[in-house]
Structure formats: structure tokens, C-alpha cells
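Aim 2 progress update. The chain analyzed this quarter is reproduced below.
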Amino acid sequence: MATPAPVYVVDGARTPFLKARGGPGSLSASDLATQAGRALLMRQPIAPGQLSEVILGCAAPAPDEVNIGRVVALRMGCGHKVPGFTVMRNCASGLQAIDSAMANIQTGRSDLVLAGGVDALSRTPLIYNDTMVRWFATMAGKKTAAAKLGHFVKLPARAALQPIIALLKGLTDPVVGLSMGQTAENLAYRFCITRQAMDAYANRSHQRVVQAREMGVFSDEIVPIVDGRGTVYKEDDGVRSDCTEAALAKLRPVFDKPYGNITAGNSSQVTDGAAWVLLASEGAVNKFGLAPIGRIVDLNWAGLDPAEMGLGPVHAATPLLQRHGLGLNDLDQWEINEAFAAQVLGCLKAWQDDDYCSQQLGHAPMGNLEDARLNPHGGAIAMGHPVGASGARIVLHLARSLQRKSSVCSGENAGDAGKTQKTQKTMRGMAAICIGGGLGGAALLETVS
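Predicted C-alpha cells:
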């Protein structure tokens, strides 16, 4: 089998992730993606019109932004001739955009692709139920004022006051009839994950983001954005610097009342945000004089029981490790999207479980993933999880993190005494994500010199 053509990560940018706070956010999904994309393109040595295509993942586009990939491409100034389209794979829509871009680059159909993801979950609409829809349809058929008035007095008040919350509907699996939180409760039960362990992991996420922010880790990823009122957003606004395990322990269960353990505190936040990566072929790198920050080595998708969808990273990443002869700790960094603390902890437990590995993965246990390698700068529990954007965010953050780690001192150069020679050490990492519906996605990245 021929070795696939290399696909390089040239650069990337994302918006601050903005927590939903009881109503529609001030920026639409296309606003978010456009502002992040413009900032990214402005610092490139290419014009937006030189892109081969724009691919954007989005799980919940607004009715007036259905093909949001094309809408954003035009708003970013890519021109009429640059194609733009939208992909959807629930929580991994941003990773699907990257995969679609990779496929087109490797087959020679594209050279330079802007791929990413976005969602403005705070703007997910309320929906009329069927009773109200039928009432409106009947009203539209009434011809006279008297007939309309007669029908109006039959307004089903109870139905009118009980709209369907589209976000909750979308986060419920229609096949198994469970919300995503309930699937996380399943993992907690299966692997005996305690409430205390979940809250400790959630606190870890907040504290690591706070520490990384103080170190400037996100300064080369996040671009400031501004809404129509002139308010500027510079950083993820759901991060709690004052988070403690004691405070998290006071929160009540959300998905399995009153006996469950999944709370708002040990779950990812409902969030608005966008993330992009610029991908290029080797030819485009040479043609435009680009300086890649990394290379996507391989990518894999997997399916599993929807009732345990949180184990998707295990099913998607394990075949990648096997294909490349790697163990869990052979990688320098892991980014596993934190949909729920129980979900990440469940993945770690599954890799160590004899029965699970033999029955579900067909091999011996993979062992214990070292804590320092996993989400060293925190994750979605603290930052938020704008569903369509998260897959692109973890790829971008992993590429940037590996690039920073790759610069090491090799000691004195024998030919130039007194001076230290800088060399580049190849670093590898995995970005993995669970996906509603019983899916998992994972991408293996490495640095380039």
C-alpha cells in the first residue's frame, strides 16, 4: 500500500469559547467563524482567494446559515471561486472537516484548505411541538377574520407554553433514548468511577487551564473577537480560577436525579466558539514558502454502543496506536475532549480493563496513560465544548503544544565550543474525541523540522 501524501498543519486560530448564559449569545456561528478565519488568513503569505476550498464542521447551523461553510468563506473574502461546504459528525464535526480536507489533499484535488468547526449553542432555538404546528397550519387556512378569531380561542395554551428545547433534543440519542449525560452515567457505573473522582478531574481541568493561561500557552491560538455592541472577548469565559473540589461537591446531579453523579460542574459547558486549521500539501508548502507547525500522520474513525459513546476515543485511537506500533505512553501528549469527567476517566479505565480490551478491542490491556501526558493544559470541562468546533480545537492545540515541546538543547557543538546547538526533536501526539451516536475519532500528529 502506497504511503499517503503528507498533510501539513500550517497554522490555526480559534475564538475564545463563550459560555451560554441563559439566552442567545451576541455572536452567531458565522460571526464566530468569520472573525477567527479572517484573523488567521490575515497573517498568511497567501490571499484568501488562493485557498483550494473551505470546509467547516457545524452540528447546529442556524436556519439562515445552513451551508455555513460557504457563508463563512464568502464573508472571509475568499471570493466566489473558492468552494465552501459544511460537514456534520456531531461532536467531531470539526475533525470531520479536517479529515475531508486531508482526503482531498492526498488525492491531489486540493492543495491548501481552511478546515475547522463552529457552533453557537446558545442560539439553538426553541421549537413548537406538533400540536402547535398543526394549530398554526389550520389558522393559515382560515379565510375570514371571524374564522380566524374562532380558531384563535381554541389556542392550546399548554402546548404553546411547552416548546421543545432543540439543544436537549439534539443531545439525546434517538436510538437508545439516552441523553449524553446518561451515557456518561453508564460509564461511571460500569467502571466504578466515584463522584469524588469526577469532581477531582473537573477541578484539575480548571486549574490546568488557569495555569496554562498564566504561562501564555493559548496566546498563539486564541484571537480576540468583538460583537455588535463593541464588546471585546479575549479569552475563554467559563474558566473558574476559584474552582475547588469542595464547591463542585455541592452541585446536584443533572441527568439521573437523585442518585447520579454527573453534574454541571463535572461536565463540559454549553458554549459558543469556532476553531480553524490551515492544511497544506507538500507542494503548497514549497510554492508559498509556508512553515508548518506539524503534520497529520493518520486519522481513524470507530463505532461502538451508543449507550457508551464516551469510550469513542478508546475505539478510535487504539487502532492508530497498533498501526504505528505505539503504546499509550510512547506519545508525548494526548488531547482527549472532555465531554464529561466520567467519560475521560472511563477511557482510562477501559484501556486498563482485561475484559473490556479483550471483548471490545480484541487485545490485551493497553495499560495506564500517565497523567502528565493527558490534557496538560486542561480541557472542555473548563474551556467549554462548542460541539462543532471541539475536534478542530484539540488538533490545533495539540499541534501547537507539540511544536513548543520539540525544541530541545543537544549540548555543546564540538565544532563551536561555548555555544549550544538547537535541534528539533520529533514529538508525537493524539487528539481524540467521543461522538454522540456511538462513534469515536482520533488523529495522530507529529512535529516537523
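DSSP finds 16 helices and 18 strands in the chain. The CA atoms of residues 350 and 356 lie 6 Å apart. These observations will guide the mutagenesis experiments scheduled for the next reporting period.
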